């Protein structure tokens, strides 16, 4: 079958990782796969989107991300409508299935203009991701929220990334609470991880003093305030008073993840985190790595004592799964998606979202270095059993086949 993915921005976030893996899974099952996107920067994307694994067509990049720092949602809607119209009127593609995510406004256009079945993947209701601090903001969001609910319900099939998101979806969209949702947990293309680890010389690590690598903690997330990266820094500061001077010299924190100069929040939050590090006198203990490549991420995961996963009520979170596959324990907030991936006291720790509880979990791994290896081994077993790429590919292929029959 011809499967076309419509995605607003093929960057390096968790949503992008999901759609790329979905495309790889369907290609593995013999389907013809293509992408249409509004933005694709070869310096800020996953390798599979630029190595010829599938065709990527970029249109509508002239539509700005924002206007004077505002109207992000309206412009995102405009981009997805433009992509849909391009597919219908100008593209030579004749899809059997169209897979779209993040912004549902394109769904009615696709249903009117094509005979394809529409699959919509809900990472999380967009209406819950934006604060309504003022009446004007509430007024601005009101029609967008209505459109999101109505257009999401027009998809032939709805997928969600976790049971947590499925529950949230039903409470957020009351008119759709009886709509069937299928949970498709994101997975790992473990073959890519395995290939990278066969060539350790190619794994790029940041320049961290060797003396600081005995206990290296890692935070991987986009530079966004909702990811709560400051929690990792505060936990490190709190840890300073709990360990011996000798152990403190061997501790380091790496904060890595997606960073886009076009996104004002990325730029501002990065500066805020730097100031926080300076104010706590942790400059020599924290390394920032922005927009890391896959090889860098794998190297960091492999060499870390634990991953600090700091978002609260994260929808799913692929990073804990990646960490566990690389045999690295995860310390995560005990809410949302991580409760479906991390097993407390077995593959890591699920904690209250404050510096004291995070630093206590970090301290346990420092005091018992073998515990990190034991938890890491159990984490890898859990990923292979529950989140393998083959299981993901088989489930998704079955879903795609089912909507046509």
Automatic annotation (TrEMBL):
The keyword Transferase applies. It comes from the Eukaryota. It catalyses: a beta-D-Man-(1->4)-beta-D-GlcNAc-(1->4)-alpha-D-GlcNAc-diphospho-di-trans,poly-cis-dolichol + GDP-alpha-D-mannose = an alpha-D-Man-(1->3)-beta-D-Man-(1->4)-beta-D-GlcNAc-(1->4)-alpha-D-GlcNAc-diphospho-di-trans,poly-cis-dolichol + GDP + H(+); an alpha-D-Man-(1->3)-beta-D-Man-(1->4)-beta-D-GlcNAc-(1->4)-alpha-D-GlcNAc-diphospho-di-trans,poly-cis-dolichol + GDP-alpha-D-mannose = an alpha-D-Man-(1->3)-[alpha-D-Man-(1->6)]-beta-D-Man-(1->4)-beta-D-GlcNAc-(1->4)-alpha-D-GlcNAc-diphospho-di-trans,poly-cis-dolichol + GDP + H(+). CDD domains: GT4_ALG2-like. Residues 12-189 form the Glycosyltransferase subfamily 4-like N-terminal domain. Pathway: Protein modification; protein glycosylation. Keywords: Endoplasmic reticulum, Glycosyltransferase, Membrane, Transferase, Transmembrane, Transmembrane helix. InterPro entries: ALG2 (IPR027054), Glyco_trans_1 (IPR001296), Glyco_trans_4-like_N (IPR028098). It is a single-pass membrane protein. It is found in: Endoplasmic reticulum membrane. It holds the Pfam family Glycos_transf_1. Mannosylates Man(2)GlcNAc(2)-dolichol diphosphate and Man(1)GlcNAc(2)-dolichol diphosphate to form Man(3)GlcNAc(2)-dolichol diphosphate. This is Alpha-1,3/1,6-mannosyltransferase ALG2. It comes from Clavelina lepadiformis.
């Amino acid at each position: 079958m011809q499967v076309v993915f419509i995605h607003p921005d093929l960057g390096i976030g968790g949503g992008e990782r999901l759609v790329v893996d979905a495309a790889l899974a369907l290609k593995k099952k013999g389907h013809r796969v293509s992408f249409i996107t509004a933005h694709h920067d070869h310096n800020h994307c996953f390798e599979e989107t630029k190595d010829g694994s599938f065709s990527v067509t970029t249109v509508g990049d002239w539509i700005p991300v924002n206007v004077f720092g505002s109207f992000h949602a309206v412009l995102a809607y405009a981009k997805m409508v433009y992509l849909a119209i391009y597919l219908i009127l100008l593209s030579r593609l004749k899809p059997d299935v169209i897979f779209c995510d993040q912004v549902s406004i394109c769904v009615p256009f696709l249903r009117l203009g094509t005979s394809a079945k529409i699959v919509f993947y809900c990472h999380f209701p967009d209406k819950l991701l934006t604060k309504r601090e003022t009446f004007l903001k509430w007024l601005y969001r009101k029609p967008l929220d209505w459109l999101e609910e109505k257009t999401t319900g027009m998809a032939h099939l709805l997928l969600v990334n976790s049971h947590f998101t499925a529950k949230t979806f039903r409470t957020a969209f009351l008119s759709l609470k009886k709509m069937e949702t299928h949970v498709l947990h994101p997975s790992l293309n473990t073959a890519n991880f395995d290939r990278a680890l066969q060539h350790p010389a190619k794994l790029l690590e940041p320049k961290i003093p060797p003396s600081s690598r005995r206990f290296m903690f890692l935070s991987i997330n986009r530079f966004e305030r909702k990811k709560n990266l400051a929690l990792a820094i505060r936990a490190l500061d709190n840890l300073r008073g709990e360990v011996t001077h000798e152990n403190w010299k061997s501790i380091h924190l790496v904060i890595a993840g997606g960073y886009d100069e076009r996104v004002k929040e990325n730029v501002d939050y990065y500066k805020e985190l730097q100031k926080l590090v300076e104010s706590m006198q942790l400059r020599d203990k924290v390394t920032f790595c922005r927009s890391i490549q896959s090889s860098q991420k794998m190297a960091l995961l492999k060499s870390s004592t634990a991953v600090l996963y700091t978002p609260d009520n994260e929808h799913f979170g692929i990073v804990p799964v990646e960490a566990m596959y690389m045999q690295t324990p995860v310390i995560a907030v005990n809410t949302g998606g991580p409760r479906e991936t991390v097993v407390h006291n077995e593959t890591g720790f699920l904690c209250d979202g404050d510096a004291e509880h995070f630093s206590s979990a970090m301290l346990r791994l420092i005091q018992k270095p073998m515990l990190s290896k034991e938890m890491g081994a159990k984490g890898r077993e859990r990923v292979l059993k529950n989140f393998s790429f083959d299981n993901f590919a088989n489930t998704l292929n079955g879903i795609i086949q089912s909507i046509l029959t």
